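Curious: why these numbers?
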Amino acid sequence: MVAVFLTIIISFFITSLFGYVVHWSLHQKWAGILYKAHRVHHFQKYPISDFISDTYRQAGINSTPKFFFIGALPLIIVPIVLWHAGIMPLSIMITVLIVEAIMGFLHNYLHDAFHIRNHWLYRVPVINKWFSHWFKLHYLHHYNIKKNFGICNFFWDRVFGSFWKIDKSVRVKS
């Protein structure tokens, strides 16, 4: 049981670091076509002046979730290979893959929800406080694309100095 709990914690940190690095990379010119595709989300689909809509505006061929999935393939393949080689027990491999799947789903779902007006998460007690807070931090990311690369976890933004806490310098429009 301790091994499964530690696996959940370690998988969470590795997966959240992966999400941070990929999102940060999508904002670097050296990422080429991926950089250009992600800019569609920021400057055409969801510019700061039009940050939310009634339904999510898909970026079509410039959709970045597919880049996250392709980039995540090593995170998915490595535990399977380690299990197959007899290095990792089946229960640990399954735990790693479940944590990665949950975090991938939450990352994508919450990100899209931030851009939808009056999303149902605003109406759920307890969750609405977290959601509103994360919404504001994501809004700041669209305001300054060099800050707040996290979606539901801003730990790595704090570690790498890209965190921008909510303050009165920017009025968040919801």
Summary: Residues 90-114 form the longest helix (25 residues). The mean pLDDT is 89. Helices lie at 2-25, 33-45, 65-84, 90-114, 127-143, 155-160.
